[in-house]
Structure formats: structure tokens, C-alpha cells
Design brief:
The complex is a heterodimer of chains A (about 120) and B (about 110). With about 120 residues, chain A is mainly beta. Helix content of chain A is about 0%, strand content about 55%. Chain A has strands spanning about 5, 10, 20-25, 35-40, 45-55, 60, 70-75, 80-85, 90-100, 105-110, 115-120. In chain A, strands 2, 4, 5, 6, 9, 10 and 11 form a seven-stranded mixed sheet that branches. In chain A, strands 1-3-8-7 form a four-stranded antiparallel sheet, with no helix packed on it. The N and C termini of chain A lie far apart (about 40 Å). The relative contact order of chain A is 0.32. With about 110 residues, chain B is mostly beta strands. The chains are: A mainly beta (about 120), B mainly beta (about 110). At the A-B interface, strand 5 and strand 10 of A face strand 4, strand 5, strand 8 and strand 9 of B.
């Protein structure tokens, strides 16, 4: 079973940049296809941010595409999220998730989530 | 990109059956996945496609789909099924493939 753990600053200033890492354990990051980030504002629903393939190819939510970058570090088995120009609307729990592969577009492993607050 | 719609909330008496529906154009091309989320926890996939229940998920969870509509049914709802449920699918209507989530349905077990 793949285990995921988010890490990074939990307080970001307005106009600043969010940087989160997702450490992967229990599997090589190259053994699965796609790795995603999903966020959830307090009291609201889930929003998919984007994904990265183990080769480095990415797909992003068009609503965030101009501000988001996802990268992968295969030697150290983690992937990362950067979101620029943060505002209060970006306050959310940020989850990293693993896609099961095998032809199924589902997230079968999730990190516990990291609450990131945008505030001065 | 397309959107998925869900009823905001439904309630069910303990032991009775409840159906949660999800509608969107992406479901015509891609199967739905259903996630259960309890307060303070990460989502957990409870069903995907029309016949796939992950190991450890009770068999009271089932799903179906037709055209642009997908449904998750809980037959004999238990107190522990009270949670938010999100449908989700791939969407390739834009320039790049992406995922869409429905807004979620809050299930209350009375």
C-alpha cells in the first residue's frame, strides 16, 4: 500500500507562493503512473489541482494553470506543488494523492492533508 | 471543462436504502468514481465504475450509470455511512485531460 505524507509551510502571506512536498513510501514513485494534488477549502468540496506522470509530464486544472507547477523528484521519491500569487481564496487543505493506474482513473491513496492558511 | 452536479444533501433512516446521483457530460465517456469523506479525514474511494468495490468496502455500497448520470446506492445504511460523498471522473473536453469532482452530497443517517 502506498503511503503519502504532505509537508511544507502552513502559513503563506498574500501574494506569496505555496510550496508543498508529498513524500511517497511503500512504492517507488516510478512504479505508478500519475500523482495528483487536490485541495479543499474549509467547509467546501474537493478541487483537483493537477497531476504529474513519473516521466515529468503534467496536466493542470485550467482554473489554476497560470499559477501552478507540479514537479517530481524520483531519486528522493517525492513530488511537489508550487502555487503562486496566493490569496485568501487559496486557503484550503491540500491533499496529495496517488492514481491507481491499471486503466482506472481513481485515487486509491491519499495523504492526510495539509491545512494551508493565507494570511499576513 | 465540464462539470458534475450532485444533490447537496440527502437523509436516510438507519437500515434503509439511499441513492446518490451525479450528472455530467464527462460521464458519457468516463466512468464515475465515488469517494466517502468523513470530517477531518482524507477521502476514501468506495466504488468505481459499475462493478468495482475496493477491498474493505462493505457490499452495501453499489453503483450504476447510464449516459450522463451515475448513481451510488447504499443498501441498509449504517450510522458509520454518514459522510460527504463525492463523484469524480476524468474529463477530456478541453485541451488537456483533467479530473472533475462533483460538489458533494452530505448523507445523514437518521
Amino acid at each position: 500500500q502506498v503511503q503519502l505524507q504532505e509537508s511544507g509551510p502552513r502559513l503563506v502571506k498574500p501574494s506569496g507562493t505555496l510550496s508543498l512536498n508529498c513524500a511517497v513510501s511503500g512504492a517507488s514513485i516510478s512504479s505508478r503512473n500519475w500523482w495528483s494534488w487536490v485541495r479543499q477549502p474549509p467547509g467546501k468540496g474537493l478541487e483537483w489541482i493537477g497531476e504529474i506522470y513519473h516521466t515529468g509530464s503534467t496536466n493542470y486544472n485550467p482554473s489554476l494553470e497560470s499559477r501552478v507547477a507540479i514537479s517530481i523528484d524520483k531519486p528522493n521519491n517525492y513530488f511537489s506543488l508550487k502555487l503562486t500569487s496566493m490569496t485568501a481564496a487559496d486557503t484550503a487543505v491540500y491533499f496529495c494523492a496517488s492514481e491507481a493506474g491499471g486503466g482506472w482513473d481513481i485515487f486509491d491513496s491519499w495523504g492526510q492533508g495539509a491545512l494551508v492558511i493565507v494570511s499576513s | 471543462s465540464s462539470e458534475l452536479t450532485q444533490d447537496p444533501a440527502v437523509s436516510v433512516a438507519l437500515g434503509q436504502t439511499v441513492r446518490i446521483t451525479c450528472q455530467g457530460d464527462s460521464l458519457r465517456s468516463y466512468p464515475a468514481a465515488w469517494y466517502q469523506q468523513k470530517p477531518g479525514q482524507a477521502p476514501v474511494v468506495v466504488f468505481y465504475g459499475e462493478s468495482n468495490r475496493p477491498s474493505g468496502i462493505p457490499d452495501r455500497f453499489s453503483a450504476s450509470s447510464s449516459g450522463t448520470r451515475a448513481s451510488l446506492t447504499i443498501t441498509g445504511a449504517q450510522a458509520e455511512d454518514e459522510a460527504d460523498y463525492y463523484c469524480n471522473s476524468r474529463d477530456s473536453s478541453g485541451d488537456h485531460p483533467l479530473y472533475v469532482f462533483g460538489p458533494g452530497t452530505k448523507v445523514s443517517v437518521l
